[in-house]
Amino acid sequence: MQGRLKVFSGNSNPELMHRVCSFLEIIPGRALVNRFSDGEIRVELGESVRGRDVFVMQSTCSPVNENIMELLVMMHTIRRASARRVTAVIPYYGYGRQEQKDKPRVPISARMIADLVTVAGADRVITFDFHADQIQGFFDIPVDRLLGCEVLLEDINRNLQGNEVIVSPDAGGVNRARAFATRLKADLAIMDHRRSEDAPFSSIVGPVKGRRVVILDDIVDTGRTLIRTAEAALAQGAESIDAYCVHAVLSGDVFERLDASPIRSLSVTDTVPLSPRASASKKIRTVSIAKMLSEAIRRVHYDESVSSLLSLWNSSI
Length: 317
Known about the structure:
By secondary structure, this protein is of the alpha/beta class. It has two domains: about 5-145, 3-Layer(aba) Sandwich (Rossmann fold); about 150-285, Rossmann fold. Helix content is about 30%, strand content about 25%. The protein is built from ten helices and 14 strands. The chain has helices spanning about 15-25, 65-80, 110-120, 150-155, 175-185, 225-235, 255-260, 275-280, 290-300, 310-315; strands at about 5-10, 30-35, 40-45, 55, 85-90, 125-130, 145, 165-170, 185-195, 200-205, 210-220, 240-250, 265-270, 285. The longest helix is centred in the first third of the chain and has 17 residues, at about 65-80. It is globular, with a radius of gyration of 20 Å.
């Protein structure tokens, strides 16, 4: 594997790349990725990739546009350096929340990013937890969509109390929460939030009184949805409240909101690297996806099945 497989990374999440390479027992690819004096992306490979199977790892998180351009220029460089195959490994897919035309005169930016990744030279994509399943159909190349929820499930399974109820913070996450609850043999509840002319109405449909509430979501950004769900659970008599989210975008005043909220802990994966402020938070903890991602890369490299990694999860949905 050391001779034919190469893994490179941009500047968005090098720690994850090093963890993955450690599991694969390979040396990370050498590349210079920085800026020219006017801010343009500069990429220079430090080794030959001719005839190699190359994986370019880059989360398109903040700064989103900078990280996307790094990914595109790196893939273009590797393609022109005669790599046999180029796989874009995008643990967090930026612009994924702009996946539909929900009002007039707005873009479907998730499709645009898919087109850019393909044109830049990707033969395949590996990613975690699209915000919407239809994004996979925006690509004209194979896409392996892994599930960070599987990693979170393994983590919560080690700390079960026996009185858990899994709560989806919105209607869009019900399938995810149901699969989670099924695997844990736990009850399911759903957050019902309505905006009315008089005042917003929030209530949880399901048994939360006297129970340990576990809120499951794919992305936590400003934290408003997550905290609104936690406050509704507390008002309905929840014993304790923990949250699990795959992508820790964490922007705005989310840290002040989280500190003041009834959420006891927020467990996230490392698809997005934590900022120093997030790392210092006593409520936020990280569960790594590196082992699952390295196994997916190994299977793609050897042309083995990736879907079998998710067979148990998919059978629960």
